[in-house]
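ok so I'm stuck.
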Amino acid sequence: MAKHPVAKVSELPPGTRRLVRVGNIEVGLFHVEGRIVAYRNVCPHAGAPVCVGRISGTSLPSAVYDYQYGHEGCILRCPWHGWEFDLRTGEHLVDPATRLKAIPVVPPASPASEQLEPIPIEREGDSLCLVLPGESPNP
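replied:
not stuck anymore, here's the structure
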């Protein structure tokens, strides 16, 4: 597995995003509610570059003529068709079974867990590294 440094955690202040690319893989990194989350930059609906969409809140379920707005900074809206996804979970707001392709952001694997499936993004101190299985390690 090869690790490709893509960003520093310090470069992602709360409420920001960063698009990174390694080879043919493009990933959106988001700092949402104190956590770094990552998603493939592909909308499950029509393949749009979803990670460049607007980040905002959304209308919440409420009584007729009672408009409530919430989840500010947690909703990603696809730029092509306006589908809304919760950045905290990757779920589509109307159909939670439809999700963005999440990429876990975790600490580096311990020696005991190296036999498990590779983790695509590792957090090493202030660095975030995209881990691509099947590649030779970086020299």
